[in-house]
Design goal:
The protein has 285 residues and is α/β, with parallel strands linked by helices. The chain is built from 11 helices and 10 strands. Strand 4, helix 3 and strand 5 (99-106) form a beta-alpha-beta unit.
Length: 285
C-alpha cells in the first residue's frame, strides 16, 4: 500500500467512565475506574473521557488519578460552558501527559428556549468565552454543541466557527437524544465541512457522539465517518444514559470486519483485547 492510499486513522474516544456511568445502576469505585482506564489504554483507545470533575469530588479525583497514571491516551475532563466547571476540569487534567478539556453548550431551539433560556447570539459568545478559558489550561480543547443533530444547520455552522476561532481543536456534533438517522446525520458533517473549509485547512477533528434511542448509534457514527468525522465517541458494551451510546466493539468491528467497504479507515484498537474488557465492564457495572 502506497503512502497515498494509507487508510485514515479514526480516533476512538471512550466515554465509558463518564457517559457510561450514567447508566441506571452503574456506579464505579475509584479503583474500578482506574482499572478500566488501564485496560482502555491496553486496548488502544486514543481518548479517555475520565469524568465530569465539577459533579463530585470522586469524579475530580478519578480524572486526576487517571491523567497522572496513563501515558499514551489523551485524558479528557468534561465541563459545561460555566467558568467554575472549566476551572475544575483544568485542575483535574493539569498533570496528564496529554490533557484535554471538553466543553459543551446546548444549541438546538428546544434547548435554547426551554433549558438555557438564551438567545443564539448569547450562546455563541458563551462558546467563545468558554473555549478561550479552557485554552488557558490546555492546548487541546473539544467543543460540543449539545443536541447538535437537532440544531439548525446555519446555527451549527456559526457556533462551530466561533469555537474554532477561539481555539477548539476538536468539534463534536452529538446526537444527544438519539433522534437522527444515518443519511441525515452524515449530511450534517458534510454540510459543516463544506461551509467551513478551515476545518480541513487547520486539521480540526470532527467527532461523532451518538445515542441509541432508536437503535441507530453505530449506524449514525459510521455515516459521520464517511462524511468527514475523524473521531468517534463510544462506550464499552454501549452503556450510557437511557438506551446507551454507540458500542465501541460494534463500531470497531464494523470497520474491521467490513474492511472491504471501509478500507480507507483504520483504528488503533487491539481487537483481541475487546472481549476481556467487555466482560470486566459488564461485571463491574
Amino acid at each position: 500500500m502506497t503512502a497515498e492510499t494509507q487508510p485514515t486513522p479514526i480516533r476512538i474516544f471512550d466515554t465509558t467512565l463518564r457517559d457510561g456511568e450514567q447508566s441506571p445502576g452503574a456506579s464505579l469505585t475509584h479503583s474500578e475506574k482506574l482499572e478500566i482506564a488501564r485496560q482502555l489504554e491496553v486496548l488502544g483507545v486514543d481518548v479517555i473521557e475520565a469524568g465530569f470533575p465539577i459533579t463530585s469530588q470522586g469524579d475530580f479525583e478519578a480524572v486526576r488519578a487517571i491523567g497522572q497514571e496513563l501515558q499514551r491516551p489523551i485524558v479528557a475532563g468534561l465541563a459545561r460552558c460555566v467558568p467554575r466547571d472549566i476551572d475544575r476540569a483544568g485542575e483535574a487534567v493539569k498533570d496528564a501527559a496529554h490533557p484535554r478539556i471538553h466543553v459543551f453548550c446546548a444549541t438546538s431551539r428546544i434547548h435554547r428556549e426551554h433549558k438555557l433560556k438564551k438567545a443564539f447570539e448569547q450562546i455563541v459568545q458563551l462558546t467563545r468565552d468558554s473555549v478561550t478559558q479552557a485554552r488557558g489550561f490546555v492546548d487541546d480543547v473539544e467543543f460540543s454543541p449539545e443536541d447538535g443533530s437537532r440544531t439548525e444547520l446555519n446555527y451549527l455552522v456559526d457556533v462551530t466557527a466561533a469555537a474554532i476561532e477561539a481555539g477548539a481543536t476538536t468539534i463534536n456534533i452529538p446526537d444527544t437524544v438519539g433522534y437522527a438517522v444515518p443519511a441525515e446525520y452524515g449530511h450534517i458533517f458534510k454540510y459543516v465541512r463544506e461551509q467551513l473549509p478551515i476545518i480541513d485547512e487547520r486539521g480540526i477533528y470532527l467527532s461523532a457522539h451518538c445515542h441509541n434511542d432508536l437503535g441507530l448509534a453505530v449506524s449514525n457514527s459510521l455515516a459521520a465517518v464517511q462524511n468527514g468525522a475523524r473521531q468517534v465517541e463510544c462506550t464499552i458494551n454501549g452503556i450510557g444514559e437511557r438506551a446507551g451510546n454507540a458500542a465501541l466493539e460494534e463500531l470497531v468491528m464494523a470497520l474491521r470486519t467490513r474492511g472491504d467497504y471501509f478500507k480507507q479507515f483504520t483504528t488503533n484498537i487491539n481487537t483481541k483485547k475487546i472481549f476481556p474488557l467487555s466482560r470486566m465492564v459488564s461485571n463491574l457495572t
